[in-house]
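Async update (no meeting this week)

Hi team, since we skipped the sync, here's where things stand on the single-chain job. The sequence we agreed to prioritize is pasted below, unchanged from the tracker. I ran it this morning and attached the output directly underneath so nobody has to dig for it. Comments welcome in thread, and please keep replies under the output.
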Amino acid sequence: RNIKKFTHAFLGETDNSQKCTIINPQIIDFVNEKDLLKAYSNELIVIENKATGYRVHFLLEYFSMQGDQVSFSGKPYFESLVAGSEKETNRWIKNRRYTYYGSLRHFFNTLLIGSAFNEGYKIVSGQLDHNNEFLFKGLVSPQDLIKREKGKIYLNLKNTIQVVYTREKDLSRTLGNMEKFKVENEYQTSYLTSRIARMQINENGVLFRPDLIRVYGFWAREGVADFLPFDYLP
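Output:
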């Protein structure tokens, strides 16, 4: 039962997760505390992803699941699988591109190069109330979210932002946190909030402290099955 919960939360709820397998689930230990599930492993968790063509060796640093709130962190190492045919190679290339576009890292990269609007993102500022209702405050200029100072790059998140990716429709309607948003929005819609207003980010669109942010909506349904190497670009 614990493995089933962990796999669903860890791999995510997208199409890629259906083609992913945890090769060595026996190395994962669990602790149940009422409705809180924690997972630990002293060895690398090996995930075979037949959707994107990678074998991922994941060092799990932290995993916590309470209700539909999931938080985990770790370090992935990517090993390319050997394709059985040219058709499979082409399918992996296509799936990697599809996985990247609309992802959180793609969004961060468009902010860094100033192309968020042109690449299909719409950003709205607001806040979430105690019922997870999003209260609209105003439109956000992508330029206001990134600041460069003394050779460092910072992501500024004073409020919760709603991010709509208008180039892909939200085809997955699985149950999860903030389901009402997923049903009401035709396009992939996510919500991003942070514990602090300013976070350092690198040139590849990777946060130095990803544990400081929380995502809802479409991005919350992505997991390790949708991870790509940090230097991947289509």
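Quick observations from my side:
The mean pLDDT is 89.
DSSP finds four helices and 14 strands in the chain.
Reply here if anything looks off.
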